[in-house]
C-alpha cells in the first residue's frame, strides 16, 4: 500500500506524531518521496476502502527488468556479534539466492514499455555504518535515502538498496517499506527495515529452525519489499484501485511452507499477487479470501 503523506500514518495512530520530524524534506530541501509497499504488522493494517477491482493495473511507469542489490546495516549494534548473529550473512545469502528463482518468477507477468519484470539479481555487497540511527528514521524516507547516498559510493540506476537498522519497531504499526529517490542525479530504489528480533507482530512463524527468528522475520518482509520494488520501482507502475502493490495483497498469507531459492537456501516467504492466477482461480487465498496469491513453490 502506498502512503502519499505522513499525515495519514499519524492519523491512523500507527506512528506517534512525536516521531515525525518538523517537516518531511530530504537533506537537499526537496520533498521526501512517499513510502510505498508498507508491510504492516499483523493486525495493524488500516481497513481497505470497499469496492474496486482486486486486479493490479499499470499506471504508466517502468518496471525492473533486472536489479543490482546492496544491503546497508545501519547502527552501532551491527558491530556486536551477539546482536548481528546470523542476520547479516543470512540476508546476503537471501539476496544471492533470489536471482532466477521460482519465487522471483512470481513477478514476471507484469510489464511496461521497457519490458517484463525480470529475475536477474546481482548482489554486490553489504555495507556497515555504525553511526547512530535517528530515532525517527523509520517514519521518514529522507533519512534512509540520505543514508543510501552516503554509504553507497557508486549507486546505479537499476540499484536497490535495502537498509536494515538496529532499532526495534516499538510502537510503529509496520515492519518495512520501500521508496525511490536519487543520489547525485542517479535514480535509486531503496527500502527500510526495523530490527525484528522477538517481534511477534512481524514474525512469519517459521518452524523450520533453519534461521534465527529475527532473520526469518527480516527475510519474509525483505521478499515483500523486493517484489514490490521490481513491479513498482518508481511508485508509478503496478498497483490496484486502493494503492496496494502485489505483495501487499498477499501479506501474511503463506502457500508453500518453505521456499528454496536458487542457491539452495530455504525460507518462509509470503506469496505475491498474480492477476493471471486470480483470473483462473489458480492461486491460494489472501487474507481477504481472494485466490490470487502465488509463491513459486506449490503455487506458480
Quick take:
With 300 residues, this protein is an alpha+beta fold. Helices cover 19% and strands 25% of the residues. Strands 1-8-9-7-3-6 form a 6-stranded mixed beta sheet. Strands 13-15-14 form a 3-stranded antiparallel beta sheet.
Task: Describe the protein.
With 300 residues, the protein is an alpha+beta fold. It has one domain (6-48, 59-294). The protein contains six helices and 15 strands. The protein has helices at residues 6-11, 81-84, 87-98, 142-151, 213-231, 275-279, and strands at 36-40, 57-58, 66-74, 111-112, 115-116, 120-129, 159-168, 174-183, 186-195, 238-239, 259-260, 266-267, 272-273, 284-285, 291-294. The strands form five sheets. Strands 1-8-9-7-3-6 form a six-stranded mixed β-sheet. Strands 13-15-14 form a three-stranded antiparallel β-sheet. Strand 8 and strand 9 (186-195) form a beta hairpin. The model is unreliable at 1-23 (pLDDT under 50).
Strand content: 15-25%
Largest sheet: 6 strands, mixed
- Please bin the fraction of helical residues: 10-25%
C-alpha geometry: globular
Supply the number of structural domains.
1
Termini gap: 23 Å
Mean pLDDT: 89
Which regions have little confidence, pLDDT < 50, spanning 5+ residues?
1-23
- Widest sheet: strand order? 1-8-9-7-3-6
- The total beta strand count reads 15
The chain-level structural class is alpha+beta
CA radius of gyration is 18 Å
How many DSSP helices?
A: 6
- In N-to-C order, the SSE pattern is HEEEHHEEEHEEEHEEEEHEE
Amino acid at each position: 500500500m502506498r502512503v502519499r503523506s505522513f499525515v495519514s500514518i499519524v492519523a491512523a495512530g500507527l506512528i506517534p506524531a512525536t516521531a515525525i520530524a518538523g517537516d518531511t524534506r530530504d537533506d537537499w530541501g526537496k520533498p521526501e518521496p512517499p513510502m510505498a509497499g508498507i508491510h504492516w504488522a499483523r493486525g495493524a493494517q488500516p481497513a481497505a476502502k470497499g469496492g474496486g477491482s482486486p486486479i493490479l493495473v499499470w499506471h504508466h511507469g517502468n518496471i525492473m527488468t533486472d536489479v543490482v542489490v546492496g544491503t546497508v546495516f545501519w547502527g552501532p549494534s551491527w558491530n556486536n556479534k551477539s546482536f548481528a548473529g546470523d542476520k547479516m550473512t543470512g540476508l546476503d545469502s537471501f539476496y544471492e539466492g533470489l536471482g532466477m528463482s521460482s519465487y522471483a518468477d512470481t513477478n514476471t507477468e507484469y510489464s511496461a514499455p521497457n519490458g517484463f519484470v525480470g529475475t536477474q539479481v546481482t548482489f554486490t555487497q553489504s555495507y556497515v555504518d555504525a553511526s547512530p540511527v535517528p530515532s525517527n528514521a523509520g517514519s521518514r524516507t529522507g533519512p534512509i535515502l540520505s543514508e543510501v547516498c552516503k554509504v553507497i559510493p557508486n549507486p546505479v540506476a537499476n540499484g536497490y538498496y535495502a537498509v536494515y537498522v538496529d532499532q526495534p519497531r516499538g510502537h510503529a504499526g509496520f515492519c518495512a517499506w520501500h521508496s525511490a529517490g536519487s543520489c547525485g542525479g542517479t535514480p535509486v530504489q531503496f527500502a527500510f527495515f526495523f530490527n525484528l528480533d522477538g517481534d511477534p507482530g512481524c514474525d512469519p512463524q517459521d518452524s523450520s529452525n533453519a534461521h534465527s527468528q529475527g532473520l526469518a522475520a527480516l527475510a519474509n518482509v525483505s521478499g515483500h519489499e523486493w517484489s514490490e520494488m521490481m513491479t513498482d520501482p518508481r511508485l508509478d507502475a503496478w498497483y490496484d484501485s486502493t494503492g496496494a502493490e502485489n505483495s501487499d495483497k498477499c501479506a501474511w498469507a503463506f502457500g508453500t511452507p518453505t521456499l528454496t531459492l536458487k542457491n539452495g537456501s530455504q525460507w518462509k516467504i509470503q506469496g505475491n499477487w498474480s492477476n493471471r492466477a486470480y483470473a483462473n482461480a489458480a492461486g491460494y487465498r489472501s487474507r481477504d479470501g481472494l485466490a490470487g496469491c502465488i509463491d513459486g513453490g506449490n503455487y506458480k
